[in-house]
Design a protein that fits this description.
This protein has 58 residues and is an all-alpha fold. The protein is built from four helices and no strands. The longest helix has 10 residues. It is globular. It starts with a helix and ends in a 17-residue tail after the last helix.
Amino acid sequence: MCKPCHRHVHRIFKERELAAQFNTIESLMGHPIIKTFIDWIKDKPDDFYPRLSRRKNR
């Protein structure tokens, strides 16, 4: 997983959620917020590093 995606995952989910529910790449990619981010970042240059705001409340 690239660093921007890794940061985004930790921005969206708490550690407990990751351990219990989103502990595979497939389960993460199935979540609509993560899917939207992946669709957005996939066309960016390899050296692109987005600035992320604070954790979102879901």
